[in-house]
C-alpha cells in the first residue's frame, strides 16, 4: 500500500492497479503496529525543521509491528564521498541517459524524486534570494531567512536550499486544452517553461542516523551511503 501527498501521482498508481492514497507523512491513516515494513524514499528531506523531520520518522515507527523494519532514504550533503562523485554530479545536463532515467524513475543517483529536470538551471529570479555561504554541516544558520537556490548537478553549499525545476514542454494528453508545444530542449521551451522551487534539507553524515537513534522505540540496523543519499534501516522494538 502506497501513499503520497500528490493526488496526481496517486492517480497514476490507481491507473496501474496499485493500492495508493493521498495523505500527509506526519499523519498516516493506518492503524499503529499494523505494518511489516515501511519505506520512505525522498520524503523526509522536504520537511523544513528538525522537529518535523523527526516526527516523520516517529510516524514510520508507529506504523510498524514489533520486529518490523523501515528503510529511509534522504538526499546527502556529501555528493562526493570517499573520493567518489555521486551519479548526480556525474550526469551531464541534457544527456539522453539522464533524461531517460529521470522520466522512468530508475536513476541510481539521488532518488528519482530528487533528480531535477536535466535541463534545469538556476532561475532568473534566483538573484533576488540570499545566497548564504554555508560550506559545511557545522555552519550556523544565517539571520537572513531567504534560501539559496541550488545550481543543478553541482555540490551543495548549504543544507537548506531551493532546487529549481523547469517544467518540460511536451505533447498534451488527449482532452487537455491545446496550446503551442515546443521541444523540451528548445530555446522557446526554456524561455516559456515555468520554474518551480522545491525546498530540500540535505543531510550530513550521521545526521539521519542520530535522529533515528533519538527514538527509544526503534534501533538502527544499518546506516549507509548510496549514490548521493544517506540511508538507514530501522527495526521496531
TrEMBL record:
Pfam families: Methyltransf_11 (PF08241). Residues 1-72 form the Methyltransferase type domain. InterPro entries: AlkB_tRNA_MeTrf/Diox (IPR051422), Methyltransf_11 (IPR013216), SAM-dependent_MTases_sf (IPR029063). Gene3D superfamilies: Vaccinia Virus protein VP39. Signal peptide: none annotated. CDD domains: AdoMet_MTases. Residues 112-123 have a biased composition (Low complexity). Keywords: Methyltransferase, Transferase. Residues 101-111 have a biased composition (Polar residues). GO terms for molecular function: S-adenosylmethionine-dependent methyltransferase activity; tRNA (5-carboxymethyluridine(34)-5-O)-methyltransferase activity; tRNA binding. Residues 89-99, 128-143 have a biased composition (Basic and acidic residues). One of its GO terms (biological process) is tRNA methylation. GO terms for cellular component: cytoplasm; nucleus. Residues 89-143 are annotated as: Disordered. PANTHER family: ALKYLATED DNA REPAIR PROTEIN ALKB HOMOLOG 8. This is ALKB8 protein. It comes from Pluvianellus socialis (Magellanic plover). The lineage of its organism: Eukaryota, Metazoa, Chordata, Craniata, Vertebrata. The gene is Alkbh8.
Amino acid at each position: 500500500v502506497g501513499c503520497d501527498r500528490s493526488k496526481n501521482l496517486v492517480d497514476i498508481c490507481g491507473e496501474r492497479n496499485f493500492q495508493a492514497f493521498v495523505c500527509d507523512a506526519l499523519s498516516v491513516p493506518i492503524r499503529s503496529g499494523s505494518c511489516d515494513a515501511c519505506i520512505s524514499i525522498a520524503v523526509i528531506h522536504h520537511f523544513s525543521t528538525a522537529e518535523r523531520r523527526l516526527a516523520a520518522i516517529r510516524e514510520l515507527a508507529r506504523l510498524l509491528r514489533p520486529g518490523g523494519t523501515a528503510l529511509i532514504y534522504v538526499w546527502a550533503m556529501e555528493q562526493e564521498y570517499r573520493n567518489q562523485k555521486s551519479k548526480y554530479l556525474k550526469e551531464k545536463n541534457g544527456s539522453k541517459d539522464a533524461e531517460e532515467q529521470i522520466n522512468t524513475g530508475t536513476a541510481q543517483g539521488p532518488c528519482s524524486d530528487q533528480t531535477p529536470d536535466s535541463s534545469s538551471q538556476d532561475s532568473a529570479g534566483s538573484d533576488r534570494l540570499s545566497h548564504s555561504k554555508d560550506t559545511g554541516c557545522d555552519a550556523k544558520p544565517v539571520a537572513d531567512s531567504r534560501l539559496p537556490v541550488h545550481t543543478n548537478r553541482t555540490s551543495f553549499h548549504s543544507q537548506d536550499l531551493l532546487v529549481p525545476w523547469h517544467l518540460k514542454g511536451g505533447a498534451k494528453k488527449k482532452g487537455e486544452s491545446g496550446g503551442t508545444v515546443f521541444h523540451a530542449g528548445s530555446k522557446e521551451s526554456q524561455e516559456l517553461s515555468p520554474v518551480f522551487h522545491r525546498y530540500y534539507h540535505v543531510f550530513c553524515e550521521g545526521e539521519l542516523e542520530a535522529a533515528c537513534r533519538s527514538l527509544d522505540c526503534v534501533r538502527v540496523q544499518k546506516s549507509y551511503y548510496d549514490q548521493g543519499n544517506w540511508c538507514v534501516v530501522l527495526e521496531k522494538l
